[in-house]
Amino acid sequence: MAAEGGRTKPVTQSRMENFRKVRTSEEESPLPFPNLPPDVVEMKVKEGSKIRNLMNFAMAQMELKGRRQIVFSGCGRAVTKTITCVEIMKRKLGGLHQVTKVRYKTLLEVWENQDPLPGSGAQNLTVHKNVPSICILLSRDPLDPTQTGYQPPEPRHGLEPQLGQAGEDTSGSSSKGLKRPLPPPCEELLTKKLQVQVPDGPRGSGSTDHQADHHH
Question: 12: how many CB neighbours lie within 10 A of its CB?
Fold first, then answer.
């Protein structure tokens, strides 16, 4: 029994530790945007994708090939990278309408046993995982503003007016703020000086001269 017990323990450990993920695939599902052109470009962002490579291809599609629309999609740990790519393109191109859809997607992971039992065939496990997914449509053409997830285009130089307005507001507020607190310290300094000079006057020679003049 001890021998059997000693054998069962490694088998149990192999079930937990000796499996290696050999393949991951996404469940195919249509894009959640109606009336898309059949040749629309979908940028499928993966966890290991490089943003520079993604953006070089996407920008070439929009600028060189004159695409009107493009879709960025990612799931799981690639969601953040997907949003980053979208923000980069919006800043570079400007004037893009945006629709964002969030949903769940099923990932199929295949795990293979690296230490199978003697006499048994290949032992593979298929795991179904539901992970959050995001799809973002960017379009040069106007989109339906009433649909859920719509965002209007930002001005191409939107940051400059904001900075200018902020500068005006801050400068106005700061100038008002500076003009208001600055005079009181000056007045206080002047009053202090006056307080210092006024008492010195009667003790000085000027006051004695005046008194002497009155005596004469």
Answer: 10
